[in-house]
């Protein structure tokens, strides 16, 4: 994803808080930005599929090249392609950190990882897209445990999904198993079948 530019443009476009934040502008203005944002516009089938794909990209903060790679990898597996694609995105290291409540946003979680503050089974990992496997433990460096945003995130974030275990005292967590599709807490409704059709 581009590091610069408007953060909530896609949220406004789909009329829903893709970022998951309660103060997202789309909550007050659920229509596309710009002079003609409120105007009615006929949406083609291609645009519908494109919008679903863009929603998923924005939720997980990945670029188009990464997104296509996730699709191709999921398409080669024996599982349902759309569900497997979301499962792979959900078990990225930065996403697991976000779900564990170690950060408030995907950007914060990615920064936490890329700056070398996160370890998998005791080994430091600075790759946000690294895949976390069931049974692996995620821990933060002693310095990161005292970051203000980490402490704030641990306080305000609800309990993680059932496939994750969190230890607040040690500021760590474990991926117990791979998530099922209906267990993944996406901020908006999403039809992954349209995304598969887009790439097919």
Structure write-up:
- With 200 residues, the chain is α+β, with helices and mostly antiparallel strands.
- The protein has 2 domains: 7-88 and 191-199, Ribosomal Protein S4 Delta 41, Chain A, domain 1 (Orthogonal Bundle); 93-175, Structural Genomics Hypothetical 15.5 Kd Protein In mrcA-pckA Intergenic Region, Chain A.
- Helices cover 38% and strands 8% of the residues.
- The chain has a 5-stranded antiparallel sheet with strand order 2-1-3-5-4.
- The relative contact order is 0.15.
Gist of the model:
The chain has eight helices and five strands, in the order ααααααβββαββα.
Give the CA-based shape: globular
Q: Point out poorly predicted stretches.
A: none
Write down the oligomeric state. single chain
In CATH, what is the class of the largest domain?
Mainly Alpha
Question: Which strands sit side by side, in order, in the main sheet?
Answer: 2-1-3-5-4
Overall pLDDT level:
85
Per the CATH scheme, the topology name of the largest domain is Ribosomal Protein S4 Delta 41, Chain A, domain 1
Strand tally is: 5
Our count of helices gives 8
CATH architectural group of the largest domain? Orthogonal Bundle
| Strand residue content | 5-15%
Order of helices and strands: HHHHHHEEEHEEH
If you compute it from the alpha carbons, what radius of gyration comes out, rounded to the nearest whole angstrom?
A: 17 Å
Estimated structural class = alpha+beta
Fraction of residues in helix:
25-40%
- What gap, in angstroms, lies between the N and C termini? 22 Å
Largest sheet: 5 strands, antiparallel
CATH evolutionary superfamily of the largest domain: Ribosomal protein S4/S9, N-terminal domain
Q: How many independent structural domains?
A: 2
